[in-house]
Amino acid sequence: MKLQVLLSAMYLDGYDYINSLHISGDCLVINQCDSNYTEHITEVCRTITYIETTERGLSKSRNMAIENATADICILCDNDVEYVENYESLIGSAFHDYPDADIIIFYIKRKEKPTPNYPTIRSMNYLSVMKIFSPEIAFRRQIIKEKQIKFHELFGAGAHYYMGEENIFLYDCLRAGLKIQYIPVKIAELRETKSTWFTGYEKQFFISRGANYCAMTRGFSLFLILQFAIRKRALYAEKVSVWKAIRWMLKGRKEYIVLCKEK
Predict the structure, then answer these.
(1) CA distance 135 to 81
(2) Which of 73, 43, 54 is nearest to 187 (CA)?
(3) Which of 75, 170, 161, 172 is nearest to 131 (CA)?
């Protein structure tokens, strides 16, 4: 099985940046910048597709990467992910061992997640996928293309709502009948860098969260809004009341529903 890393980034000075992420195998780079340009590079141990684009938005970048990918297995990547030395064999072995899995979620160590979300191998459902972030997601490219599953371009860094694109993507995969497996195998670490989108628990955060829950599941979005407001209140309570957080999330939910009707 051929593996390809799909890197989404902005204003890179060429494709050599992938070496700093320890990407030793095939890679496709979407570099959002001020030009449009495509180059295919063949090296001794890897091939690289490098695409510069004037498009903006993380989900647009993800979709462009999936559209141009060629490998059997793809894994999403951000510009602050540093892979372990044997990441290719770890990912390839997992898909070999679980031939029925359409998507496999791996573990990427980061400050807020020093240990895996789950200690053992398990099948993922609508609740468990809410804990996953994009670079942990590897998938069989063909089934994603066949089911016409894409990232929601209203969501993600640089979009109208700046979070939750991976959760919507995984919900769409589950609704399409895809099997998602979780394997607590570390494949990378996240660099400690400043977030490009998170500026605190303020109004736009809660509006985006409410819209995100609605895009995931309109029927259960009210429940998700309430549980988030209560379960996470310790994170934001110093600056925002529970009721204000709920009100802002409901505003985001309503706003998203109106946007859907206008399309």
Answers:
(1) 8
(2) 73
(3) 170
| Mode of pairing for the β-strands spanning 180-190 and 103-109 | parallel
pLDDT tens column, 209-233: 999 999 999 999 999 999 999 999 9
Tell me which amino acid residue 11 is.
Answer: Y
| Interhelix angle 165-175/203-216, nearest 10 degrees | 10
- The one-letter amino acid at 100: D
- Position of tokens 């942990």? 136
Burial of 249 per CB tally in 10 Å (0-12, 13-18, 19+): buried
Whose tokens are 């371009």? That residue is 153
What average pLDDT does this structure show over 64-76? 97
Could you tell me the residue ranges of all domains in the chain?
3-190, 203-262
Which residue type does 233 have?
Answer: R
Q: Are strands 47-53 and 122-123 parallel, antiparallel or unpaired?
A: unpaired
Structure tokens at 75: 């894994």
Q: Tell me 135's DSSP state.
A: G
Q: What is the pTM of this model?
A: 0.94
Closest CA to 137 of 151, 153, 148, 127: 151
- For helices 203-216 and 242-262, angle between their N-to-C axes, nearest 10 degrees: 50
Joined tokens for residue 78: 């951000």
Q: What is the CA radius of gyration of the chain?
A: 18
Alpha helices in 105-220 (DSSP H): 141-146, 165-175, 203-216
Contact 251, 161 (CB under 8 A): no
Architecture of domain 3-190: Alpha-Beta Complex (3.90)
